[in-house]
Specification:
250 residues; alpha+beta; Immunoglobulin-like
Length: 250
């Protein structure tokens, strides 16, 4: 009797393993396999040597734990999917908005450098600006002197220290602040642009302006310059709302 039961269980295990290998949804099948194997083992147990009740309870507990973990995994997948949709929706709110993006680059186009902004949280004795080529070769440096707390704008004229105009392209720019208390430190630079496209890389949103593409997490500030300039302005009346000509001449 026990030999026949062992053979039946062995055959059931082999069949279930083969099914699990062929299945595309192995997680769901694993739970069902466990239950089928358990029922097969119980139904073919030897009457003279039944399964120990402790072992039976242990297997039932394993089945319950497996189902709970699978349900938790499904819930986490659903939560991640929901968070992804929320992030996509939030990223769309940046379209056509003017933003400040963290940058260490300055673009030179036809002898004109793109403006770079920096923000000081305290007064500085001096701000040292340095521009380097792509290979790290120093090109230009300038001392801005005493600089107060707040936002500032710097525009490189595109020339090196000898006054020679550099070629168009992208260069590295750094700001080093010497503070009144004797300390010094690097100051983060920013450039401005209007977001004209949202793209996703590895599931994370990136904002794209006319000059560069960067992760959404590197956006420093966001506003809408057009809305600030024209949002409160009232539209002109259409033609049929204008007063009669004779009233205007009077």
């Amino acid at each position: 009797m026990s030999v026949s039961a062992n053979e039946t269980i062995a055959n059931a295990q082999t069949n279930l393993r083969n099914m699990a290998t062929k299945s595309k949804n192995s997680q769901e099948l694993q739970k069902d396999d466990f239950m089928n194997l358990f029922l097969t083992q119980v139904s073919h147990q030897s009457p003279t040597d039944p399964m120990d009740s402790g072992a039976m309870m242990s297997q039932m507990a394993q089945l319950g734990s497996m189902e709970q973990l699978e349900n938790l995994n499904n819930q986490m997948k659903a939560l991640n999917s929901t968070q992804g949709e929320i992030a996509r929706f939030q990223a769309l709110q940046f379209l056509e908005k003017d933003v400040l993006l963290e940058t260490e680059q300055v673009s030179l186009n036809k002898g004109s450098g793109s403006p770079v902004f920096f923000d000081l949280d305290k007064d500085a004795n001096n701000i040292r600006v340095s521009v380097e080529d792509t290979d790290g070769t120093p090109i230009f440096n300038q001392e801005l002197g005493l600089t107060s707390t707040g936002k500032h704008r710097f525009t490189w004229e595109g020339k090196n220290n000898e006054g020679v105009l550099m070629g168009d392209g992208k260069y590295k720019i750094n700001f080093i602040a010497n503070y009144l208390n004797g300390t010094s430190g690097r100051v983060q630079g920013f450039n401005s642009g209007r977001v004209n496209q949202i793209e996703y890389k590895d599931g994370k949103p990136w904002v794209k302006t006319a000059h560069k593409s960067m992760p959404l997490s590197q956006v420093r500030t966001i506003d809408n310059a057009s809305q600030q300039l024209f949002g409160s302005a009232k539209p002109l009346p259409i033609m049929n709302q204008l007063p009669p000509k004779e009233l205007i001449t009077k």
